[in-house]
Amino acid sequence: MTADTTRLEALMAGAVEVCVRHVESGGIPFVGLLVASDGWVSDPGVNLVRETGDPTAHAEIVALRKAVQARGRSGPEGATLLATGEPCALCYRVAASHGIAAVCFAVDRDTAADQGFDYRAGYDADGTGRLPLAATAQHLAVERGLVPFTRYLDLHRSDFTTRSDFTTRS
């Protein structure tokens, strides 16, 4: 870990609150944040896929882009990636290619799937489970970690007739 657990928990709790606000403004419940070993913390990245039409604008990738803009190409190297939802296969690969040292998440892939965001097939499709970052990623429980997901469901429940319809359209 590149920062102590208490600090990471506080930063994750803050990322969850950013995520709740993002959901309340129409976004989906994913936020990424980088914490460098020297204490630097990135601006949070929110998932902007729907807003921009960019299929790579996942929260973790947006946070990495911000870190590179703020600190240069080597800026994210050695940092810890905090994510409100466990990163998908794409995000694990991009994080690894940028030298991220560790990944912590508030909500794991199975819980995200239970909430209507089932991206687990991507792990098997590209062997992400064998990547060191995915194998060593840690669940970092925070009190309100699930709130962005449940709030998203509450706001959009009437848009879908069944849970499986919701899962396939998110």
Describe this structure in words.
The chain is α/β, with parallel strands linked by helices and 170 residues long. It has one domain: Cytidine Deaminase, domain 2. The chain contains 9 helices and 5 strands, in the order αββααβαβαααβαα. The chain has helices spanning 5-24, 49-52, 59-71, 89-97, 109-114, 121-126, 132-136, 147-156, 163-169, and strands spanning 31-35, 45-46, 80-85, 102-107, 138-139. It has a 5-stranded mixed β-sheet. Helix 1 packs parallel to helix 8. It is globular. Residues 6-117 form the CMP/dCMP-type deaminase domain. This is Nucleoside deaminase. Pfam families: dCMP_cyt_deam_1. GO terms for molecular function: catalytic activity. InterPro entries: CMP_dCMP_dom, Cytidine_deaminase-like.
Short description:
With 170 residues, the protein is an alpha/beta fold. Helix content is 47%, strand content 12%. The radius of gyration is 15 Å and the shape is globular.
Question: Features of this protein?
Answer:
catalytic activity, globular, CMP_dCMP_dom, Nucleoside deaminase, Cytidine Deaminase, domain 2, alpha/beta, Cytidine_deaminase-like, 170 residues
Can you tell me the CATH architecture?
A: 3-Layer(aba) Sandwich
The tally of structural domains comes to: 1
Record the strand order, biggest sheet. Answer: 2-1-3-4-5
Strand percentage: 5-15%
Backbone shape: globular
Q: What helical percentage do the residues reach?
A: 40-55%
Pfam families: dCMP_cyt_deam_1
Domain CMP/dCMP-type deaminase: 6-117
GO molecular function: catalytic activity
Protein name: Nucleoside deaminase
